[in-house]
Specification:
The complex is a heterodimer.
Chain A lengths: L4 E3 L2 E5 L4 E6 L6 E7 L6 E6 L5 E4 L2 E5 L5 E6 L8 E8 L6 E3 L3 E6 L1
Chain B lengths: L3 E4 L2 E4 L4 E8 L5 E7 L6 E7 L2 E5 L6 E7 L2 E7 L7 E8 L9 E2 L3 E5 L1
Parallel strand pairs in B: 2-11
Antiparallel strand pairs in B: 1-3, 3-8, 4-5, 4-9, 5-6, 7-8, 9-10, 9-11
The chains are: A mainly beta, B mainly beta.
């Protein structure tokens, strides 16, 4: 069974601070995705990383896929209250339509 | 708005009730999913349908019964549920081809079993 562990589970910061959340596994994934889920809504896909060592940027969000394709990180620069939400990573282990989801990092950015 | 619509948004039911959750998408996706999201667990995949055919049943109890009449609609029929089944039930769809792993989620049905 493939597992993805996310850390930290909870993070509360002030507006303007930087933060990094992590998604780790002992398994190799062919791709890894990050989703953000706001209260009362479903997760929304932010990015997919495919190549080991790949870095993708989405405005103030920087996503990195580990060289060995076992881990990933999400770095947010100058966090804003609109970044508040549950961040989920999900790995594709090439088992058909079956993604493995991490437990999530719940982020709160206070004004 | 992801293009995946779930109804109802909220549902309260007793353990002896029978209810159904509905999901529809008109994105042209061929795969549809049911996920369960509980407070202290990662998202759990329940069922997967590809072109109306069930391809995955992730050891889900028989009190949950999925139905996929066509590629745009997915139902989850519920009967004799337990209080521990209270959770957010999320429907998702994904496109064919190389983007099959990109999930589009609905807003979910928040289910409370009394």
């Amino acid at each position: 069974t493939q597992l993805l562990e996310q850390s930290p589970q909870f993070l509360s910061i002030q507006e303007g601070e930087n933060l990094t959340v992590y998604c780790n596994s002992s398994s190799v994934f062919s791709s890894l995705q990050w989703y953000r889920q706001e209260p009362g809504e479903g997760p929304v896909l932010l990015v997919t990383v495919v190549t080991g060592g790949e870095v993708k940027k989405l405005k103030r969000l920087t996503f990195q896929f580990g060289d060995a394709r076992k881990d990933s990180s999400l770095h947010i620069t100058a966090a804003q209250p609109g970044d508040t939400g549950l961040y989920l990573c999900a790995g594709d282990g090439n088992a058909g339509n079956m993604l493995t989801f991490g437990g999530g990092t719940r982020l709160m950015v206070k004004p | 708005e992801t293009g995946v619509t779930q109804t109802p948004r909220h549902l309260v039911m007793g353990m002896t009730n029978k209810k159904s959750l509905k999901c529809e998408q008109h994105l042209g996706h061929n795969a549809m999913y049911w996920y369960k999201q509980s407070a202290k667990k990662p998202l759990e995949l329940m069922f997967v349908y590809n072109f109306k055919e069930q391809t995955e049943n992730n050891s889900v109890p028989s009190r949950f019964s999925p139905e996929c009449p066509n590629s745009s609609h997915l139902f989850l029929h519920l009967h004799t549920l337990q209080p521990e089944d209270s959770a957010l039930y999320l429907c998702a769809s994904s496109p064919p081809g190389r983007d099959y792993e990109k999930l589009f989620f609905g807003s979910g049905t928040q289910l409370s079993v009394l």
